[in-house]
Write a structure and sequence with these properties.
Blueprint lengths: L1 E9 L2 E7 L8 H8 L10 E7 L7 E7 L4 E2 L3 H13 L7 E6 L2 E10 L2 E8 L27 E6 L3 E6 L6 H9 L9 E7 L5 E7 L3 E3 L3 H13 L6 E6 L2 E7 L6 E5 L2 E9 L1
Parallel strand pairs: 2-3, 4-6, 10-11, 12-14
Antiparallel strand pairs: 1-2, 1-17, 3-4, 4-5, 6-7, 7-8, 8-16, 9-10, 11-12, 12-13, 14-15, 15-16
């Protein structure tokens, strides 16, 4: 059985998209693990299923599976790609879409020009701050010999994130896998290393739980912007510079919601054996 798919990316954060309204996958966990392999599969950071919403409050639904087969709660980059997919594949003619995720309903606002979605703004909701054993601490002594100077903050944007401010952002490959599995995070955690640049932009590198280093992370960009604002490194608006591109984050006073704006792009379509 062959399943049609579409490869898309948001700032280099690439996923395999399947229209689950037409094609059902009985074991998406296994499909994500196999198809995401960059040498033996399609190659991606994971698998995204686009489906009808089971509740009337939303228009469509999203399920997302990491490259290791685990299911994620939410993905900002994938949400933007879904908006572009639905509009340009003529599954909707609305430029405002309610998308059901495991972390709630997210509103997508599509910015279009001549029928093309140029960018998407996603209402990511309110940030959540929770205590953990590493909360707002210097973590130098906690990494089994792997040292990094900096302080940190835990922020959930539907997914859990631990944002570390440091000048050593390129140590993400060292620090990320250690902290992802740290006992302070019983459900594992996404790790961001961030540095505020002289012009106010924030250079950020990401280790995503279940996928490793990725080119970008939408919820991670939001968590980084919030953490920078809370620690008074920046204001409530930030440009987050990730490996694959820049996302604009606006943490609004009016409703305490975080709004993420960025691009989405098609890569190719294909079919794969199930």
């Amino acid at each position: 059985m062959k399943i049609p798919f579409t490869k898309m990316h948001g700032c280099g954060n690439d996923y395999i998209y399947v229209n689950a309204m037409q094609h059902k996958l009985r074991n998406p966990h296994a499909a994500a693990l196999t198809w995401s392999d960059r040498h033996k599969g399609i190659g991606s950071d994971g698998l995204v299923l686009i489906d009808k919403s089971p509740v009337p409050e939303a228009d469509f639904s999203m399920r997302i599976f990491n490259a290791d087969g685990s299911e994620a709660m939410m993905c900002g980059n994938a949400s933007r790609c879904i908006g572009k997919y639905l509009f340009e594949r003529k599954l909707t003619d609305s430029t405002e879409i309610k998308l059901l995720t495991l972390s709630g309903i997210k509103t997508l606002r599509l910015h279009t020009e001549q029928g093309i979605v140029e960018s998407v703004t996603v209402d990511m909701g309110e940030p959540i701050f929770e205590d953990c054993n590493l909360y707002n601490s210097n973590i130098t002594s906690k990494l089994s010999g792997r040292t990094i100077a900096g302080d940190a903050l835990f922020v959930s944007m539907g997914n859990p994130h631990y944002v570390i401010f440091t000048e050593d952002v390129n140590k993400v490959g060292e620090i990320g896998p250690v902290l992802e599995q740290h006992p302070a995070f019983p459900q594992r955690c996404n790790i961001e290393l961030a540095q505020v640049l002289p012009d106010g932009r924030i250079r950020t590198r990401v280790w995503e739980r279940g996928s490793g280093i990725t080119m970008a992370c939408g919820t991670g960009a939001c968590a980084t912007a919030v953490a920078a604002s809370v620690t008074r490194r920046t204001g409530r608006q930030s440009k987050i510079v990730m490996d694959g591109g820049t996302l604009i984050i606006d943490w609004r006073d009016s409703d305490n919601h975080v709004y993420m704006t960025g691009p989405a792009a098609f890569v190719f379509d294909g079919e794969i054996e199930l």
